[in-house]
Amino acid sequence: MNVRRRHISAVALTAVAAFGFGTLTACSSDSAAAGDTGSFDVVASFYPMAFLAERIGGDHVHVTSLTQPGQEPHDLEISARQTAQLEEADAALYLKGLQPSVDEAIGQSPIATKIDAAELTTLEEHGTEAGHADEHGDEHAHEDEHAHEDEHGHDHEGGDPHIWLDPVRYAEVAEGVGKAFQKADPDHAADYRKNTAALVKDLKALDEKFRTGLANRTTDVFVTTHAAFGYLAERYGLTEEAISGLDPDTEPSGARVKELQKIAKEDGVTTVFYETLVSDKTAKTLAGDTGLRTDVLDPVEGITDHSRGEDYFQVMEANLTALRTALGAR
Known about the structure:
This protein is α/β, with parallel strands linked by helices and 330 residues long. It is built from 13 helices and nine strands. It has helices at residues 10-14, 47-57, 80-86, 100-108, 133-136, 138-145, 147-152, 167-184, 189-213, 230-235, 254-267, 281-290, 312-327, and strands spanning 22-24, 40-44, 61-65, 91-94, 113-116, 221-224, 239-242, 271-274, 293-296. The strands form two sheets. A five-stranded mixed sheet has the order 1-3-2-4-5, sandwiched between helices. A four-stranded parallel sheet has the order 7-6-8-9, sandwiched between helices. Strand 6, helix 10 (230-235) and strand 7 (239-242) form a beta-alpha-beta unit. Helix 8 (167-184) packs antiparallel against helix 9 and helix 9 runs parallel beside helix 13. The protein starts with 9 loop residues before the first helix and ends with a helix. Residues 1-35 and 128-156 have low confidence and may be disordered.
């Protein structure tokens, strides 16, 4: 579809390209760069956005992900090659506030259709879990407020960006993306509408699986190294306790270990969760000090060979299984 060819700046051409695009092709098996296909070319910032674009676009889109499989999306720095290729796309789908370099690159890009997922649903502030702070101290609450900033070197202005971990909010985003695709590529609007409806139906089914799967549990509290699950916790009445204020490779402080030991004892916590794209060192250190076990709770920021599934739905169902075990669900 995209036959435009724009002038690429000398800076973009001469700067060093750190890496190329990771490509998810819904319309072909090749790895053609954005702008070189006969399809509606969509650049997605990272996996959850690329997944939406593929499911909604179907055979009519060529989806290119800025974040490589296995790469931690928070740490992404856009290369000059990626910046140049952005100029050739028909649309950009991203989540403002998660990846600053992506926000800047898309903001400066001449792409006509820019879809910010953060504007398609409601964002909220989450730390580890503000509601639990009253029981365990104001100092803990203060640490929670800065969990994202300390862990990844930047804060998420405007709220917690991890909306895709709540199937209901993710469905809201899907509906917005579907409408944007219909407007930008009206020749295929009927198919985009149909694909969006099918995806939303699947997400509603996933929501129901979580509701019924977690209905009969012995505790509401789970511990994780990454404060990414605030929306999921809120949706299903759970309490997330993250090891806040720490780099993923840094061992927890003695004070925080003692605090989590107390929480684990009081609330029947059995498991410290870690994720697939960062080291499990922090989780294992805490688990060893508290007599708990470790397991994976995947924030689904990317799919790798180590993921417990091949796509969003499979990994989310694996997360449900892990939570059911940790929370004593029957």
